[in-house]
Amino acid sequence: MGDAGPAGPVLDRDEVDRALARLGAEHEAVETSLFALQDHAGRRLLEGAELTGVTAGRWAAAEASITLLWTYFDAYTQALRTARGIRARRRWSSREDLAELTELLRGEAVVVPGAATAAAGAGAPEGGGGRLSERYSLETLVDRMNRLYAAALDLVVAADAVWSALPARIDLLAAELRRTLGLAHSVGVRPGEHPAGDDLERITRTLARLRERVVSDPLAYWVPAEGSSAPGGGRPDTTVYDREARALEEVRREIDAVLAVRQDAEQRILRLRDVLSRADRTLAEARTARGEVLAKIAATEVPVVSGPPTALHEQVATAAEYRRHAQWHRLSPLLESLEGRAEDELLRARESLTAVTAPLAVRAELRGRLDAYRAKMTRLGFSEDPELVETYERARRMLWSAPCDLRVAEQAVLRYQRVAAEALAAEPRVSGPAADPRVPGQAVAPGERAAADRTHRTDRDRTGPGA
After folding, report:
1. Strand boundaries in 327-419, DSSP class E
2. How far is 267 from 254, CA to CA, in rounded Å?
3. DSSP state of 81
């Protein structure tokens, strides 16, 4: 190490050689990076595109920065070439050579025209505005080149990423949109006539505007990664594209539903008519049953049965008209509505029939209970008991005559049950070989069962047909 100069202590020969080797490696790295940037597909696209908006302003600044990069690199190359020339003068450099090399390698010995830095906006030192040239050390020059290169590369990579991602995806979506438009027109879905047609028209306009802006202003659709300092850190902003893709998918599902209607419309209309026909028959049966209940059952509330679903029948006829005129876009929502309402109508008709015939079901249950107790008492040998016979006949007349008062008849059946229970309490129980299914745990002989059935039929015949 020699005497100190303006650039610090004078370097010895080994230090000079190491510094030249390091600077030479940095020179190669910078040169490789600059050529890669020069050949980058994104850069070539930016140079040839008609840019607008954010991208136009940033690319104008980036172009000036790239020009300055090459100016810096040329100055750096010249300085490195000069230093190598001095070192190559002699094998063992003199003190004067070492001092000159120290100044060149460590001092601000690189001169860059001031116009170049001003054009690029690469800040000259404070207070240096208007200077004809600027002086830098090689280390400072490398630092400036690295920062300018990183900023330019970040812009180029971002623009290239957007152009690589969005236009191709937009074109694919536009192709799918054209196919959907063709299907929509085939089933009568058009703007102004169907909401899906309006949606398709809006999606078409939005995609056209989106593609035009993505091509001319790609940086408007770039989202930088938070906290990332690497060039090109971020992702394309696909918010608008994703929204329109979802909208098109919804429209496509609706068109598919309309197409499905076109294929099976006749079968669906036939099924609708069948369901409504069953509902009509059930309501007719309920009305007939209501008349029978009013004639045979007294002192009871019988629900009123509504008429046939005329409005539904008219809408089914409208659906058939839509089918004949191939108005599939109108037929689709109408069928969806009618199918649910027709099933509801059939369910309502069945519930009405059940409600109307409930008194007849109660009378049948009382008749069965009375017959079961009489069969039990006959099997146990009480068929000739005068009180039981009288109580039975009273209950039977009430249940097998019209009109039948269910409340009074139920009390008569309960009266027969009480009399039978009192009779059983006064006599020991007798069991037979066969179980009576209507009276669990009791037995009845087959002969007794047949005799009892014949007796019941004879009694009913004597009562008359009105029950």
Report:
1. 404-405
2. 20
3. H
